[in-house]
Design brief:
By secondary structure, the protein is mostly helical. The protein is 78% helix and 0% strand.
């Protein structure tokens, strides 16, 4: 094909595209009679592409095609979802189809729609157009590639039309939501006010479920579910604080009966929160503490001053009278000063184990200086025994791991 023929064909293609564009931009609004629209579209297409231009274009394109043995098959050259095929009908037919689809929707007829993501679907289709045009170019079909891209290039008026339709639909949807919101406004305000007052979850959930049961649309349904979640979180925070107060009665004041009663009431009021709060486990713990409590000691503190006894226990610890201090502190665990007694008990355990570790260190030093193997072994065994006393008297003391490490070290020394 010579250069003048290419120019002529390109000019003819551009003219055809221009006529097609003018047909799109000047087309009336989509009507409700698809058949009439299709007839007008076919007539416009015939006017936009005269027979003479079509014949010349066809002959010119056939001349520029490579041999059939070298050209790839049509199925490999054309993408699966080609945006604009060369045999596609004009844009007015698309508008007519959209109008027909809208009529079906208005008549509540079921439609099989494929949901797409515009952010991925449109770019993918555009890329397919570019890939197909590039494949034509690489086959030497430059004129075909130019004409194909020109059809894609003039689609902008349609895009503006789609944007206008989207704006119109958004306005309609917004109007519908506003009308529904006004219809259900009293119940919506009631739910909002309940959450502002931090009402219990059960009350808010009941009101929200009533709103959902009225089928107010997805917007108000989502609102109701969000309000339920807000109420759930608010009530959960409140319940956690209340649970902490119940545990203080048992752990700090040895008021196990009162704590258990409050825990049972707590369980009834917060049945929706059993899993996150582990209410039954709390009740079981309180009952176990009550079962292990010294009832005789509890009665003793009703007539005696626990504060005075606690001061005496501290003095005994300072004087290293560990056995007497331990007995008194265990008794104080059944008093209203249970928390203070437990804290002092932990200090007693540390003091006792520190004393035993000190003894162990002294015995180990003597063993290292001893040349007699039997005497050295005896000293090491005595050192290990001191550590065993710590583990036996206070198995859960804070120095437990250090004591175990020291004992293992002495065992290795003894086995040498």
């Amino acid at each position: 094909m010579n250069f003048s023929s290419r120019i002529f064909l390109s000019t003819a293609g551009i003219a055809a595209m221009g006529l097609s564009l003018s047909a799109c931009t000047g087309a009336p609004a989509p009507c409700t009679e698809p058949e009439n629209t299709e007839q007008q579209s076919s007539q416009g297409a015939q006017q936009a592409a005269p027979e003479q231009v079509q014949e010349q274009s066809s002959s010119a394109i056939s001349e520029s095609k490579p041999q059939q043995t070298a050209a790839p098959s049509s199925s490999s050259a054309v993408p699966k979802n080609e945006l604009v095929s060369q045999s596609a009908e004009p844009a007015q037919q698309s508008s007519s189809s959209m109008a027909s689809a809208q009529e079906k929707v208005s008549e509540n007829e079921p439609m099989a729609l494929t949901v797409i993501d515009p952010y991925t679907a449109f770019p993918a289709m555009a890329n397919e157009v570019f890939e197909y045009a590039d494949s034509l170019y690489k086959q030497g079909k430059v004129d075909d590639a130019v004409k194909y891209l020109q059809r894609f290039r003039v689609i902008k008026p349609l895009w503006n039309q789609w944007e206008n339709q989207a704006d119109s639909m958004l306005a309609e949807f917004g109007k519908t939501n506003a009308e529904r919101a006004k219809q259900f406004e009293p119940l919506v305000l009631e739910i909002q006010n309940m959450n502002r007052a931090r009402s219990n979850y059960s009350l808010v959930a009941e009101a929200a479920d009533n709103l959902i049961a009225l089928v107010p649309g997805d917007s108000l349904t989502n609102f109701a579910n969000q309000q339920k979640q807000i109420a759930y979180n608010n009530t959960l925070d409140k319940a956690r604080k209340e649970k902490s107060e119940i545990l203080k009665l048992a752990n700090d004041q040895a008021k196990f009966t009162e704590a258990e009663q409050k825990a049972l009431e707590f369980q009834m009021r917060y049945r929706d929160f059993e899993d996150p709060l582990k209410i039954q486990a709390m009740i079981d713990d309180i009952r176990n503490m009550s079962a292990n409590n010294d009832a005789e000691a509890a009665a003793y503190w009703q007539k005696n001053d626990p504060a005075e006894a606690l001061a005496k226990a501290k003095d005994l610890v300072e004087k290293s009278k560990f056995a007497e201090a331990k007995e008194l502190l265990n008794k104080l665990k059944s008093s209203p000063l249970r928390k203070e007694a437990i804290e002092e008990y932990n200090k007693l355990a540390d003091a006792y184990c520190n004393a035993q570790r000190k003894t162990t260190s002294q015995l180990f030093g003597k063993a290292q200086k001893q040349k007699d193997a039997a005497k050295k072994a005896a000293l090491l065994n005595e050192a290990i025994a001191s550590l065993d006393k710590c583990l036996a008297e206070y198995p859960d003391n804070s120095q437990k791991q250090k004591v175990i490490d020291n004992r293992n070290f002495l065992q290795k020394e003894l086995s040498k």
